[in-house]
Amino acid sequence: MAHCNTIFHHMLRLIPRHHFSKLEREHGTGRPPRTFSRWHQLVHLVFMQVTSRASLRDGVAALKARSSNLYHLGVRPVARSTFADANNRRPASFFEALFGLMYRRCQPLAPKHKFRFKNKLFSLDATVVSLCLSLFPWASFRRTKGGIKLHTLLDHDGYLPAFVAISPAREPDIKRAPQPQPTQRLHRRGGLRLHRL
After folding, report:
1. Quick one: 15 and 100 in the same domain?
2. What pLDDT does residue 196 have?
3. Eight-class DSSP state of 73
4. Could you tell me if 159 and 186 lie in one domain?
5. Less packed terminus of the chain by CB within 10 Å, N or C?
6. pTM of the predicted structure, to 2 decimals
């Protein structure tokens, strides 16, 4: 019988597993998981994001429906409670470090813009993500509406995000641009202080 890997499998192959394992050891939380590893968690999270799943229950059910394809991804179906516990208890710093690793791998491969400028060109923009105020009371935005603001600084060399931050929905963009983040290095470009990954 002919065997063909899925497009999703080819996407996941872009993540080097030896680097993934190294980060897993560096960000360990004690005893290694018995069944639901960090790789399982990542595959589930990426699948739910790519397929626009509406909820955790929806994402787990969709993966169970494709259980015959999970073998080639190196994962198994998981109970919703196990997945929810992993998301709740494991620190997000691991995925932050994984994003930094993949970002550095993408930078040299990204296309360059065709314009020539004396200084580097960045674009700063933000979007408001609406949230239900009764479920997220900490994200108060208006009287009956909650929300957060996602600030993004786009580097036109390769069109990759050079800075991403989350703030209260009322906060203006310019307040977030000069503030350093724990995992970022500070660069000066034409007198403007910018923070890059």
Report:
1. yes
2. 43
3. G
4. yes
5. N
6. 0.63
